[in-house]
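For concreteness, we quote verbatim a single protein encoded this way:
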Amino acid sequence: MISLHQGRPTAALNGTWKYRLDDEPDGAAAEKYARADHDDSSWPELDLPTNWYLTEIGDYFGTVWFRRHFTVPDELAGGRLFVRFEAVDYYADVWVNDVYLGHHEGMFNPFEFDITDAVDPGGDNVIVLKDGAPRDDTEYVQAVFSDNPLSDDYQRHQAVAINQIKGHMIDAMHRPGAMTKFRQDGTSGGPWGSIDLVARPSVYVDHVRIFTRIGIKKDWLGDQLDKPDGSGLVAVDVAVVNTTGRTVVADADLTVTPKTFDGPATRGGERTLVLPPGRSVVKLVLTVAEARLWWTWDHGSPDLYTATIRVGEDHLDQTFGIKEITHDDATGQWYLNGKRIFLRGMRYITSQWLSEGNRELWGEDLQKMLDMQINSIRIGSHVEPDEFYTMCDELGFLVWQVFPLHYCVSDSDDFIARASEMIRDMGEMLVNHASIGMWSVFKEPEIYLLPDKPNNYFRLCQILKETLGTVDPTRWIHLGDYREGAQNLMIGGVQPGDRDMHQTIVQPQIVEFGAASIPNLETLRTFIPEDKLWPPDWDTWEYHGLFYDLAFKGAKIDVGNSLEEFIDNYQSYEALVVKEQIEFFRQRKYSPVASMYLYYWSDSCPIIGSGLLDYYRRPYKVYDWMKAVYTRVLVSFERTASPYLLGREKVYPRGSTFAGKLWVTNDYDTDVDGAEISWRIRRAAGGEDVTGRTFTGTLPADSAEQSDNVIWPVPADAEPGGYRIEMAVTDRAGEVLSENAMDFEVR
């Protein structure tokens, strides 16, 4: 169970710890290293928290012992004292002063132990952490037998049944080892979250779950319709722990105070509680009149409140927002506070090593996302540190959270049980964040290349959904990609670059789109040895994420005559195909597309990836191209062609007809009246116009409409060479809402 610690007296145990790699026979180390009086003076030191890959330990799979001495500050004495670990990857055992406290499994979920009776309040204390992060013992089997120059170990391999619950951190495409035999390289092991002493009173509020409803009332005296009444209903499940050993009677109440705006506090929900020893769960309910709702940044203000829950002498504060997010199962469309919204989204991961995350890094990333007019973020398949979600609350990003399961995991009874406990933790960790909009229990439960597939969709996923629903019965819970109207369409990335999009069935939730590319040479040199760069050593490149078959058989990238040319060719292709995927999906807004998420914001490690930015936050070419077309108003061109290919050269023989549809997509809540829409076809060389049109019209709110037909019979004597159709939309005041272009060639 997750315990909340915000606002409690705390003392950090971060900083210098002694450490030692476990080199003893099974179990023997605990007899020595866990003892408080063990001589660790010769052990090296390490600053925690960290992922040990980033330290002198490196890519080590196994067990590391950590020890340090501490004293209990006076301000933490007198109540119950706990030691809290924000995150330890992956198996943790903890001792204090020779007292074994317990075991924990997981890589993202915080845990704590009551150490009140184990510590010497006025003396020296020793805490010991045993952190086990072994390789998962799954077998890896070659799953693709392709005619390419890769050695057998570097061909595509598939895990049979992973038994650790680590999602992206153990098995995904763009990470160390990639899709080879070495898929688990790049360990994420380590105590990567803060370690703290936490003090609580003897009767304390342990956890709260806050659920909100927008007030609705039927107009009995009028038109008989159900209408918002301006209020917000706040219902709180309060877990209270009584450690006194006797039944306690305590008064409880709830106060809701505006946090991001000025306004009066609302107090109520008073109850008298009879609390037996142990843990009790009670309900407090409060109506907030004239409630301010939480919105994504582009549809309103992300207003937040503070809930203060008081039980006896204890109180706990939690930030939350009043909102309702609903999913229309028939259409796949999203409604926030009753308003339909289109999600221009981004998949995000801070790093393969989450200890690198901090408010400064997230602030820079999220500000760039705001500049790109992104309003939704998909976290999959891992869990970010809590502060990241707090920033999304404050900035108004709607978050789609995916539980840390990615590809090839076991469907055993034991695995289902352990995963269910962890997904309950994930729900309790995040349920109160206003930014959380929806959940997925598994990234891609049916992506297996081996003939004997685990039955995860019908076994594991169903139980996980049921378990998460007991924590959060209000939000939509998705079972996994390629089901329930969700799909991945990465043209030239995972799907072939020559796929006919007019023959492709498109689902409402495009939970991944995009393509791969090669980072800049400066970045490439940080992880590929110079002698493997050119000519490319394909095994080395495959290990670091090239995916030979996808690059040369799917995307059909031209290697060129130099490394620089190869990089430019791949980056140029990614930029174009991503731009045209965005245009294609947004032309199909609500027909049926309701959300779209680029894969990824940034590469999670130094690798050949698929981000807008590489691991060092250096941009790929696609960054500026995407920024130009992810605007709330988009003018775009859908050419008449069969097959309809994205990212490919567009060639028109002289005497043929250049034709297509001009689309304008408007994601604003209101009509744009008096908009000026223009298009023109120009020669690239001389810049002169050959045809065009300008007209005025209204852009309906929340729409995607064909605004014009473009037809240009290419003259038989037209100058051969490059041409461009340029498009623009401006508002009545002359402000540019969208500018776009498509290049083609006349031969």
Q: What stands out?
A: The chain has a mean pLDDT of 96. Residues 633-746 form a domain with the Immunoglobulin-like fold (CATH 2.60.40.10). The radius of gyration is 28 Å.
